[in-house]
Amino acid sequence: MKSWKLIQHCQQNGEERRGAILVLAAALLVLIFIFTAFTTDVGLITLDQTRLQVAVDSATLGASMDFPDGEAAVLASVDEMLRLNGFDPAGNPELQVTPQFGNWDDSLMEFVPSSFDASNALRVQVTNTSIPAQFGTVMGRQHYTTRAEAIASRGGGVPRDVVLVLDASLSMQARMSNGLTRMENTQAAAARLVDALGSRDRVGLSIFSWKDRNRWRHELTGVTEQKLHFNHQPTTNRIRELKPGEYEIYTNIGGGLRAGLEVFLDDMDPRTGREAEELEQIMILLSDGQPNRAEPYPVPDDGPNGMVPRLWEMRWFYDEYESIRRWANTIKARGIKLFVITVSDEAYSHVMQQAASPPEEGQDTFFYHVSNGPDDYLELLRTFEEIGNYTRKPKLVK
Question: 226 φ, ψ to 5°?
Fold first, then answer.
């Protein structure tokens, strides 16, 4: 009898344990389901957040490049770039897009809203409330929300050193279609470019040709007029004072390139730290004629270490076009971006075109030719404006 009761007692306890295990297993299944739902929806939210941030970054940076075309063009570009990246403001009413113009303070890392005309930066904020919940619906969530923001600064992000190398030969007194001389139109366009540079940019100036009485035989060359400086006004003033043939009537383009390079090499206060790492060096060469004097070739070669040859290394004869090619190669080998502008049909040549830096992403050409004819002065202004846009190339700062 006692054995039978013991067996009954064990059976009852086993059934109770099995019942408890079933309850526990059901609870665990619910927890696993909730965890799976949470993990799946979090993955979807993270994926959409990443896609949205990439789209907003692209739209902000791309639209900032349209600043020269006006406020409406920038705003239209924001919507178009978002659409191309899979977020269409016109087709999705749940997508809230807020573009805003302002000024970026690089030292404070702060964006201050302003009018379009007074702005140097664009901020785009996008909120997407249309992400459908998957397993989260069992918890009463029908949609999730993601947000993204980006700020692009024009000229405030990357410091730049810009050196202008201008032709001051006698042919610069020839008149363009507006009745002003090539020199006068160049002065107006170049001064406008300098005035538009940012507070973190430095500028310098060299001209050609110039009579260097300290050099034997090859005395016609280029000369530094202004060293690199954060104060842009002295360079602007000197540009406006230039006169055709002020020093010499000849055209030593290679000498101008060498003088422009020396502005960089003779930098008395080079940048350090983060600015030195981000620095972009730019040279802008303008000439209106064929070279009729040659600069001695750089030694030991036309690579990054090329320098003016010493007296005993000089030759009797140098080729004008080879001089341009070698000094241009020396400049580019040092990582300096070289823009070349030729004004008038007499100045255009294959050598001048090859002297310019090769195309790169975001910049189709570094060579510009302004032909003789109606509106040539407007083409010159547009050329300097386009180069100016490169010097203020936007950068994502947040």
Answer: -140, 130
